Amino acid sequence: MVQVPVGAYDCDVLVVGGGIVGLSTAYAITRAAPGTRVTVLEKEPGPARHQTGRNSGVIHSGIYYRPGSLKARYAVRGAAEMVKFCAEYGIAHAVTGKLIVATEREELPRLHALVQRGRENGIPVRELGPAQITEYEPEVRGLAAIHVGTTGVCDYVGVARQLARASGAEIRYGARVVRVDRRPERGVAVLTAAGDVVRARVLVNCAGLHCDELARLTGDEPEVRIVPFRGEYYELARPELVRGLVYPVPDPAFPFLGVHLTRGIDGGVHIGPNAVPALAREGYGWGVVRPRELAGTMAWPGSWAIARQHWRYGAGELRRSVSKGAFLEAVRRLLPGAEPADLVRAPAGVRAQAVLRDGTLVDDFLIRESARAVHVLNAPSPAATASLPIGREVGRRVLDMLASTT
Predict the structure, then answer these.
(1) Nearest CA to 29 among 181, 215, 197, 204?
(2) In whole angstroms, what separates CA 389 from the centre of its chain?
(3) CB–CB of 125/150 below 8 Å?
(4) Which of 9, 37, 39, 44 shows the shortest CA–CA distance to 175?
(5) pLDDT in tens, 357-379
(6) Which of 14, 92, 93, 151 could lock onto 200 through a cystine, CB 3.0 to 4.6 A?
(7) Are residues 245 and 261 in contact, defined by beta-carbon separation less than 8 angstroms?
(8) Residue 2 binned pLDDT confidence (cut-offs 50, 70, 90)
């Protein structure tokens, strides 16, 4: 067993996870308390290899999220801060605005509810009729829409790299944590797969797809499990069909936003994602199956509860996964002129979705504390947008913990 001797520390704070949330946390700590020694362990050979680097690059406005929730507050605040951060460091970004489009009459009440939610969250929105939709997006059709002007796009991998540089933290790549020894009266020691031992006063768990596993390694029961959902994307072969960002009206019962059209910072247009169960924590395709991880997902009662409650929704998502024609149908609801040849397969992402034992999908960011540890247990989209406020909140908790244990 790795042990923590009294007074022997390699750093004050050890962050596990080199995605945008972990790096933002390191950045926040060193800015708030200069001189604090921070080490970041990332199992991949570079930063932002999973959720951070495998999304559509959207800076979300915060319009979808329940007023007063962490997602709402941090997304609204984080969007403005992300634009400022990108401008300060010369990272590619653009504030493009986006359309949320209703294509069926039954979606109109939900669209109007989003207008109200946006206003409650302090987000300026403009309601549009069919003719006004085509002024923004000539190839898009709908019964009504809202325009959200504060939405944008950026290079989140570039943001993560800059956070790593600006934090002054020691970043160790290729450092997978395999064991944790937490002694409340002393600190935390971790052992990596390479045999290195790192000792710290406080551990921060920003392990994303593996955060619940790391919590259990630390000796804490997170009371949630990460159920991975793969989001599959296409690229639009004729990007000139879409000027900016176009979204459907989301189903409020799910944290997924539906198949949407996103012109990225590189000028290409992403289409997607859908949301299907992944057969591994990092299951970026149907051929990636890890039996131990899959068995762990299947053993969690919440996974079966999701299947029972939402099988009809899931069947539609699976159909779009295996059938390009079915995916095209979803695209044509917004973009009628899309043709089969317009859809070119693009890399997938996996969403780390925390699920309670009863099958409830955790709907907000979830941060929990225990002795000598802070765990970020649910930070899917819009966590990249909200990463600077999330990092400050985690950093505040860590610094309070350091002050109380020294």
Answers:
(1) 204
(2) 14
(3) no
(4) 44
(5) 999 999 999 999 999 999 999 99
(6) 14
(7) yes
(8) low
Q: In the prediction, which pLDDT does 42 show?
A: 98
**Tokens read off for 41:** 């362990």
- CA-CA-CA-CA torsion sign (178, 54, 159, 205): negative
Q: Which amino acid is at 279?
A: L
Helices and strands, counts by H and E, the chain: 10, 20
248 closest CA partner among 70, 93, 114: 114
Per-residue model confidence as pLDDT tens digits over 138-148: 999 999 999 99
Paired with 192 in beta bridges are 177
Report how far residue 214's alpha carbon sits from residue 177's, in angstroms, rounded to the nearest whole number: 8
Q: Report which of 245, 256, 54 is spatially closest to residue 153, judged by C-alpha positions.
A: 245
d(C-alpha 9, C-alpha 155), whole Å: 35
Greater model confidence, 125 or 254: 125
Secondary structure letter of residue 338 according to DSSP: -
The rounded distance, in Å, linking the Cα atoms of 191 and 387 is 27
Contact 265, 94 (CB under 8 A): yes
Mean pLDDT score across all residues of the chain: 95
* CA 98 to mean position of chain CA atoms: 19
Nearest to 53 by CA among 347, 391, 272, 404: 347
Q: Which residue has the tokens 């308390």?
A: 33
| CA nearest to 42, candidates 196, 230, 171 | 171
Quick one: tokens of 142?
Answer: 């709908």
